[in-house]
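@channel sequence for tomorrow's demo:
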Amino acid sequence: MDPKNKVALVTGGGSGLGLALARALGLRGATVVLADRDLSAAQTAARALQELGISADHLSCDVASAQQVSEVVGEVMTRHGDIDILINNAGVALGGTSGDINLEDWRWIVDINLMGVVHGVEAVVPFMRKTGGYILNVASLAGMHANPDMGPYNATKFAVVGYSEGLQQELAGANIGVSVLCPAWIKTDIHRSALQKPSGNTELDQHRVEAMEDVISNGIDASDVAEWAIDCLQAERFYILTHPEFLPMLEKRHQRVLADYAAASSYFSTTDRA
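structure tokens (generated this afternoon):
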């Protein structure tokens, strides 16, 4: 979809990747609405975009609340007349050792990373069915290749990838495009969001966040990821991937799936089973 003269709603748009995606859309002619739980950050970000000549608006929104997302969608429709592009970007990070992760923290990340995406889709699709549109869900490479000590994050991002795959097939006939963005390390502060978890923080939590600083600092700039993502959106590419150096990991996972499927095929093709 060509963003020119379109209205785009970006969740988590007040900073990081969300702001970079909004900037990339705005520079290509879209009106962008930044929805963020931090209203002050969204307002500051919108002003910065306006200084670049971008038509930008901002609203407060906690994507974990279906009601707030629905109200934001209604307000955008009232102010701007349509929502052509939805970018479900808002998300948080959470890791830890299985058996030691508070269930309240599990619910917290699921409500934001997965249900936040669901809330956005469910609120916007009824409008998009009338005129068409495009949905970009931000997942992660962790939604294609799991890493240890990242169970909650892995689970929510795998869910977003699977949900997006189904959506693409479901909505194709309604002229609604779908893409899923699966980046690895990006220079943002998402790793620090783990310190917002409901159960509070320990010295170990702080140490984990600090240990991620070097990894994040060597990541790709959010602006570069955003430009590539909007290129892919315009080309209607479904999987939007970054970090080609991680391709061997995905190939290894695929080989494991094929090997185990071969074992299953051998077993179930045997007619004489006890």
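heads up for whoever presents: The beta strands are 7-11, 31-36, 56-60, 85-88, 133-138, 176-182, 239-241.
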